[in-house]
Specification:
The structure holds three protein chains of three kinds. By secondary structure, chain B is mainly α. Chain B is built from twelve helices and two strands; from the N terminus they run αααββααααααααα. The chains are: A mainly alpha, B mainly alpha, C alpha/beta. Chains in contact: A-B, A-C, B-C. Chains A and C meet through loops of A and helix 2 of C. The complex binds adenosine-5'-diphosphate and magnesium ion.
């Protein structure tokens, strides 16, 4: 039999196309996820960059932008798009542009100030019939603030904008636009603190319950339930907060403004709870069993072991959990848009309306003129959010993990 | 008996009780949220509501275009995200050396993708897909005519795909890890190449993981609103999207619009509740399926 | 003259810094059964797995010295490892059929070699299953899942799967350790038949088994090859004290 069969040659490396190609493709695709991070940062930052470019005047910028459109018909683009520094007359044209794909549509629209609903004028709706989202929101501006067209043209001074970044006024649409980020920052901070005060203890204690105290059957109910909570879209949580929680909490505490940082914070806490819970539970489960047993053997009771042995041993993990929870709340947009009142105020009172950084992007991006200062500032806020969550994640990833390793292995 | 125990170990009772109460509070809020939305929306939850267009300036009628738009968006999103995610997961489990710099960088990148706020993806979609790729395509193929350089369902789906990529990667990776090393060795020992082993042994064994990842991604993508706010979602469209360069309506965006931008919020309250219920049921059932699948995969690993 | 199919020269193997094989030199003759015995952890599996370069899959492994198969150094950098493994098949300790049908399991090897001819595949599958002495038990349910077979049947299926690739050498790592006595004796019988056509290297912790089925026996201890000789000689009159101690059951 052996004599009959042709011998396999093993002395020469055979080139196998399918393996070679598969490996190439797999490697490059996997590498893309790193590229995405870089791209995301690059493109978000790129759109905010003109802010820092204040040596160039408005005209120069117009040229730049239209050249970016690659010599396409600049008028056309201005009409539909508003990328080049817009003049008021150009804006008027928005109403009559029709899109080739959508035939008939009406737009139900209203103000951009999300908390206070105002009705739009039906006549205008007809006129602006068929638009893309950013166009529609431009129109929206028309429907509500007639004076806006003249304001926009004055917003083109980047130098001025840059100077106003560290002020207390966020008034991007006015005669004298001011892009003070402080109230947004303060609002975001307030919300974050409130939500963490609410979510962190609940989630950590619940994790302690399921990993130490809970009978197996209960654990198998609670864990998936909290996983389910993680799967609820934030717009649904926002809806719940706006429709139910806001009134309930107002009745309970009797404060004046229905939508405020307290309501928003609690609602965002709901979004953060599953994250904190899951990571804390993992951290608790990673604590070696011997810790637990040794403590019990020394005569400590179960609760003492849980609180004075398990919890401290898992501290780095819990810290990471809270950091990621903060990251979630910091960048949460829909809940902020729906449940915080969206007023850029400076006060420290938790029962006042606030406007967060993320919500500002969400609310205003759709109504800015592409390429103008306001647009750039919104992207700048995006860059800040990106950097902030990136750093939080890096801390959670590297620093905390290192500590955790040391703590569990070193002792 | 409880009283006795209470006396002897009041502190223990208190602290253990504290943890139990925390867990219960979370569960209670979850249940209240579900019940309220179900009660509020159940009268609207009819076949007609699901299959008809909004009427009377969106104060009446159904949510069919939003349902359709969401479905179409998550399909396009999955087409983009699932292959990417599966391939990246294959790289991480099959090709990368566990502690190599590249593998660790990719893992870090994936986790970073998972924590970047969704609104940032929206900004990226706008800055990259619409303004960079779209505008570039317009000037290259359309002679400068505006077609791709504006929000549409393709850009929104791709933006969402990026957001859900980590979800797919993590689930698939978890599933790939449950394929026993012995099976890979058996295949290799039979003279199969690495790629043959992956294609014929590893991948068929991880279909349920790929399913889980896809379902979770779809559920996530169906519920997210921030990334599509300015990359393709529309308030209202009288027709369904017919091509990739059309805008679309989405359930989540519809909820947002109806609750905060509508002229008369009270009048449309039933529609709001109804839409929320639909979205909730959709994401919820997908999540439940995914959770069950995932528990099964985990059990297989233990067994 | 008996051909030496496998030969190692001063072979060392490390897992990271830990030495697992220490200066192993051995010659394994063609078409005979060579048994590797020794206490658990002495490096038997490690040695076996380096004969078809299965250890390549473990990142931390470093190998020094030479291993020849048919006088070809298989750790030469030009060696095609995929083809090497077709030539040097392997049966594992834990039976590991794929979650496919019995037929597909056996046809796996020919298929990855590009053979998709249905009648040829059928022929190969039947022959392999016959050679592995399992044909009669499975011929009526070739398209059932292999997972439904008993442990002993699964292991013989794995042997059939290896035979279908038509290797020259078959490495077996404690193929019967997880099986009941009846299955074990079936496998032993099978090995006895297979050595007519194949060179077999088998790891076993069962000394009676080694004595029954092998022509040569190598005794490993702490990564070293202590003694290697005809099985008869090893079991009746070992040269080394350690070998005698092990065989008489004084340790291990
Ligand atoms: N993948 C591995 N990584 C590190 N050490 C290993 C690995 N596999 C085996 N070893 C070590 O190498 C030595 C020999 O193992 P092995 O060859 O499996 O022994 P045997 O098969 O004789 O029981 C043992 O000490 C074992 O701990
Ligand atoms: Mg072994």
């Amino acid at each position: 039999m052996n004599e009959l069969k042709q011998k396999i040659d093993i002395t020469k490396k055979k080139f196998r196309w399918s393996d070679y190609i598969a490996e190439r493709i797999i490697k490059s695709v996997a590498f893309l996820s790193i590229t995405f991070i870089v791209l995301i940062f690059f493109f978000v930052f790129r759109e905010s960059f003109p802010i820092f470019n204040f040596s160039k005047d408005a005209e120069h910028k117009t040229e730049q932008d239209s050249s970016k459109q690659a010599q396409s018909n600049p008028n056309e683009i201005q009409e539909q798009y508003g990328v080049p520094a817009p003049e008021p007359e150009k804006q008027e044209q928005y109403g009559v542009v029709t899109s080739d794909t959508l035939t008939e549509a009406t737009i139900q629209t209203s103000t951009q100030e999300t908390a206070q609903q105002a009705s739009a004028q039906p006549a205008k709706q007809e006129q602006y019939g068929v638009q893309t989202a950013d166009d529609t929101s431009m129109i929206e501006n028309y429907a509500t603030s007639e004076s806006k067209a003249t304001e926009v043209s004055t917003t083109d001074n980047n130098k001025h904008a840059l100077k106003t970044l560290v002020t207390k006024d966020w008034q991007p649409v006015s005669d004298n636009p001011r892009f003070g980020l402080l109230p947004l920052l303060l609002g975001t901070l307030k919300i974050t603190i409130i939500s963490m005060l609410f979510a962190a203890p609940l989630a950590i204690l619940a994790a302690l319950y399921t990993s130490v105290f809970a009978p197996k059957r209960l654990k198998e109910i609670i864990k998936p339930a909290i996983e389910l909570l993680a799967g609820i879209p934030s717009v649904v949580i926002g809806f719940f907060a706006l429709m139910i929680m806001a009134s309930f909490l107002q009745d309970l505490f009797g404060y004046a403004t229905r939508l405020n940082s307290f309501v928003g914070g609690i609602a965002m806490g709901l979004a953060a709870i599953p994250i904190i819970y899951t990571i804390t539970e993992d951290a608790l489960n990673a604590v070696p069993k011997t810790y637990y047993e040794a403590s019990l053997a020394l005569g400590a009771s179960k609760w003492q072991t849980a609180f004075f042995v398990m919890l401290p041993a898992a501290t780095p993990g819990i810290f990471a959990a809270v950091l990621l929870g903060i990251g979630r709340v910091f960048g949460e947009t829909m809940i902020a848009l729906m449940a915080t009142g969206n007023a850029a105020m400076m006060g420290l009172n938790p029962f006042e309306s606030v406007r967060t950084l993320a919500a500002t992007i969400g609310a205003e991006m759709a109504e800015v003129v592409f390429g103008d200062t306001h647009y750039n500032v919104l992207f700048l806020i995006g860059s800040l959010l990106f950097i902030f969550t990136f750093i939080l994640n890096a801390i959670a990833e590297f620093w905390v993990k290192g500590r955790l390793m040391k703590k569990i292995q070193g002792k | 008996m409880i009283l006795k125990r209470f006396k002897r170990d009041a502190k223990g009772f208190f602290f253990e009780g504290l943890t139990l109460v925390s867990a219960l509070i979370i569960i209670t809020i979850l249940i209240v949220m579900l019940v309220v939305i179900i009660i509020g929306g159940k009268s609207m939850f009819t076949w007609e509501f699901l299959t008809s267009f909004p009427t009377e300036g969106m104060t009446q009628g159904g949510i069919f275009p939003a349902l359709f738009g969401t479905a179409l968006m998550v399909i396009i999103m999955s087409i983009a995200a699932v292959p990417f995610g599966v391939i990246t997961a294959i790289y991480l489990t099959e090709y990368a050396k566990e502690n190599s710099v590249i593998a660790r960088s990719i893992r870090f990148a994936v986790r970073t993708l998972a924590v970047i706020p969704s609104i940032i993806f929206g900004l990226f979609g706008l800055g990259f897909f619409i303004k960079f790729v779209g505008t570039g395509m317009d000037s290259a193929f359309m002679g400068g005519q505006l077609k791709w350089g504006q929000p549409n369902i393709l850009w929104a789906s791709l933006t969402m795909a990026l957001l859900t990529l980590p979800v797919v990667i993590v689930s698939v990776e978890e599933a790939l890890k449950t394929i026993p090393r012995e099976l890979r060795e058996a295949s290799l020992a039979l003279g199969a190449t690495k790629w043959q082993t992956i294609r014929r042994v590893v991948l068929p064994g991880s279909y349920s993981g790929i399913m889980t990842g896809t379902i979770l991604a779809v559920s996530r993508g169906a519920g997210e609103v921030a990334p599509i706010l300015f990359t393709g979602a529309a308030y209202y469209l009288a027709t369904l999207p017919g091509s990739l360069s059309d805008q679309f309506m989405s359930l989540g965006y519809h909820i947002y619009i109806m609750t905060t931008q509508s002229a008369n919020v009270d009048q449309t309250l039933p529609i709001q509740f109804g839409t929320t219920l639909v979205l909730l049921l959709l994401t919820f059932s997908l999540n439940i399926v995914a959770i069950i699948l995932r528990y099964r995969i985990r059990r297989r690993r233990i067994a | 003259m008996i051909l030496q199919k496998i030969r190692t020269e001063n072979m060392y193997l490390y897992y990271g810094n830990k030495m697992a094989l220490n200066n192993v030199s051995i010659s394994i003759p063609e078409k005979q059964v060579t048994a590797l015995i020794g206490p658990s952890g002495c490096g038997k599996s490690t040695f076996l797995r380096s004969l078809n370069r299965m250890n390549d899959l473990i990142d931390s492994v470093k190998i020094e010295g030479n291993i020849f198969v048919d006088d070809i150094n298989i750790y030469d950098k030009n060696i095609d490892v995929v083809n090497l493994r077709k030539k040097v098949g392997m049966v594992f300790q834990k039976s590991n059929p794929f979650a496919k049908s019995i037929f597909d399991n056996v046809a796996y090897g020919p298929r990855i070699n590009g053979n998709n001819n249905k009648s040829e595949l059928k022929e190969i599958v039947e022959k392999s299953l016959r050679d592995a002495a399992i044909w009669d038990e499975v011929k009526d349910r070739l398209h059932d899942s292999a997972m439904g077979l008993s442990g002993g049947q699964q292991q013989r299926l794995c042997i059939a799967r290896t035979l279908a690739v038509d290797p020259e050498i078959i490495l077996m790592d404690e193929p019967a350790s997880a099986l009941d006595p009846i299955s074990t004796s079936k496998i032993e019988e099978l090995i006895f038949q297979l050595k007519e056509n194949f060179t077999i290297v088998i790891v076993t912790h069962n000394m009676q088994q080694a004595a029954r089925i092998s022509d040569n026996t190598a005794f490993f201890y702490l990564g070293e090859l202590i003694e290697y000789n005809k099985t008869k000689k090893i079991y009746t009159n070992p040269d080394k004290k350690q070998t005698e101690d092990y065989i008489s059951g004084r340790f291990g």
